[in-house]
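Course assignment 3, question 2. Fill in each field.
Student: A.L.
Task: Predict the tertiary structure for the chain below.
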Amino acid sequence: MRSKHYLIPLKPLAWRRAGLSGTKFFDTQIKEKIAYGLYLNRCHGSDPIFDGPVEISVTFFMPTAQKKGKSGYHYQTPDLDNLVKLLLDAIVSTNTIVSDDRIISVIKAQKVYDKVTRTEFTIRELE
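Answer field:
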């Protein structure tokens, strides 16, 4: 079973609802998704695309809280599901890592405090 680890050395970002201008929707986070995609393309390199069922294990390293005594799991905003949504949008938009987001069968996600903000995840093929 093949697996690959990825690192995005940017502050984790949560998905936001698309905006509306007149009668047209627009993506307010397109620049952030492009930046994530560039890091993902660089990490993936020329490895073959994942095209069967996969598991994604992701850790979002959030800024350390200002108050003393806070460590371990991050339990404030942004919501974990919105962090995952933006990451999956970035993974799918690259068209170089997974063939389609339908192949993602398992997602394990957590957010923790850390001095260095980043997102790390591993994609692993399933049998």
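Instructor remarks: The beta strands are 3-8, 19-21, 24-26, 54-63, 104-114, 118-125. The chain has a mean pLDDT of 85.
Grade: pending
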